[in-house]
């Protein structure tokens, strides 16, 4: 939910190409017209045998790969012992973890139907706009295969086999396993609530996983861990706010569900920010430049390629509702950035190269700039018409 700050609403820019030479890099619908004309020129029999290949509804056409100088891979190799001692210790043993079932009616108990009835009574009191945001959050969590893939694109830390024993790989798999509980819990809760169109939601998840994501981290673990630091904090903020709203609406059990997920996100944020803190210690110049690079490109949200088969601006619509409800706002984006600048003591970095100093200045001045731009955008913003969301049977919600 990056509002106006995500690359889908601002043209992609890429530092390896001059902006005038880059072809259109916004995510585009697949060229279906081309396919149709190919088919019409063949005989009916040929046409039958020419099966239309599957193409995702959202594609990112120009991407930068392997931007980290290969010699820096050694840094991540040399940090394996440190990661074992400092990062793997932030994982919780499975036996001590909560599981979705701890927060859901027990299907094996006699009281199951009563518990479901009670859950549905509570759910009736929650407004549609809240459900739109909760569904969007759940869909984002459910696209987890994409995020594990993303981590495994990163040079020097990827899981080379699928069961690699390096601390980086152990972290990625266990992180994924912890995260898997988030989508699972929200999905089951929403299914039982009876308030949402599960088939439309399931279609959106399938489309989203099929489209993937492009966080523009370029196989570069500096960029990758800065991105995940930002994202874990962003999801902590989102789930924390849906918990707060559920409490205000009188649904303590739903508040607990969102709150327990937010707590996981916080622990994950601690891990990723610690990795980046270590990179600042070893390579302050490279790390501050990576931070500035990521912020110049803007942090795109993981579900930025979201589509339900119908609404071409689904992600923007969902983001607008999240912004209006105060679940995730442009102000949060600026706050997260400011938090990270403080967390990594960016202002205090010394001995930087001229490029490093430029990057330092850029990120330190960015939060107030974002806030000013946002205030101006808010002042100009006109209220649009309410939009039907397929996730809630086309009931309309104000943006
Ligand atoms: Fe999560
Ligand atoms: Fe997370």
UniProtKB/TrEMBL annotation:
It comes from Carnegiea gigantea. It is found in: Plastid, Chloroplast. Homodimer. Its cofactor is Fe cation; Fe(2+). One of its GO terms (molecular function) is metal ion binding. GO terms for cellular component: chloroplast stroma. Keywords: Chloroplast, Fatty acid biosynthesis, Fatty acid metabolism, Iron, Lipid biosynthesis, Lipid metabolism, Metal-binding, Oxidoreductase, Plastid, Transit peptide. The keyword Oxidoreductase applies. This is Acyl-[acyl-carrier-protein] desaturase. PANTHER family: ACYL- ACYL-CARRIER-PROTEIN DESATURASE-RELATED, STEAROYL-[ACYL-CARRIER-PROTEIN] 9-DESATURASE 7, CHLOROPLASTIC. InterPro entries: FADS-2_CS, Fatty_acid_desaturase-2, Ferritin-like_SF, RNR-like.
């Amino acid at each position: 939910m990056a509002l106006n700050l995500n690359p889908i609403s601002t043209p992609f820019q890429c530092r390896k190409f001059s902006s005038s030479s880059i072809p259109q890099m916004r995510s585009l619908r697949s060229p279906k017209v081309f396919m149709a004309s190919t088919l019409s020129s063949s005989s009916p029999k040929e046409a039958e045998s020419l099966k239309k290949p599957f193409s995702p509804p959202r594609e990112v056409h120009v991407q930068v790969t392997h931007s980290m100088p290969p010699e820096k891979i050694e840094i991540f190799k040399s940090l394996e012992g440190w990661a074992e001692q400092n990062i793997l210790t932030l994982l919780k043993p499975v036996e001590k973890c909560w599981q979705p079932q701890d927060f859901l009616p027990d299907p094996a108990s006699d009281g199951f139907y009563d518990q479901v009835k009670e859950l549905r009574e509570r759910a009736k009191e929650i407004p549609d706009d809240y459900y739109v945001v909760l569904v969007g959050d759940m869909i984002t969590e459910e696209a987890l295969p994409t995020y594990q893939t993303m981590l495994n694109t990163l040079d020097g830390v990827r899981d080379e086999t699928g069961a690699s024993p390096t601390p980086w790989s152990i972290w990625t798999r266990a992180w994924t396993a912890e995260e898997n509980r988030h989508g699972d819990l929200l999905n089951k809760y929403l299914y039982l609530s009876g308030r949402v169109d599960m088939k439309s939601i399931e279609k959106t998840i399938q489309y989203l996983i099929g489209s993937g994501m492009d966080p523009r981290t370029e196989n570069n673990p500096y960029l990758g861990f800065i991105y995940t630091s930002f994202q874990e904090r962003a999801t902590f903020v989102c789930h924390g706010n849906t918990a707060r709203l559920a409490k205000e609406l009188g649904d303590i059990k739903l508040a607990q569900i969102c709150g327990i997920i937010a707590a996981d996100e916080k622990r994950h944020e601690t891990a990723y920010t610690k990795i980046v803190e270590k990179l600042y210690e070893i390579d302050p110049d490279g790390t501050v430049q990576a931070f500035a690079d990521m912020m110049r490109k803007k942090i795109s949200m993981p579900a930025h390629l979201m589509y339900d088969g119908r609404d071409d601006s689904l992600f923007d619509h969902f983001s607008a509702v999240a912004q209006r409800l105060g679940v995730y706002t442009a102000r949060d984006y600026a706050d997260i950035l400011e938090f990270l600048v403080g967390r990594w003591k960016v202002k205090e970095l010394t001995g930087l190269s001229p490029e490093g100093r430029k990057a330092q200045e850029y990120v330190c001045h960015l939060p107030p700039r974002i806030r000013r731009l946002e205030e101006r955008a808010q002042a100009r913003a006109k209220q649009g018409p309410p939009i039907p969301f397929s996730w809630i049977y086309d009931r309309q919600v104000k943006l």
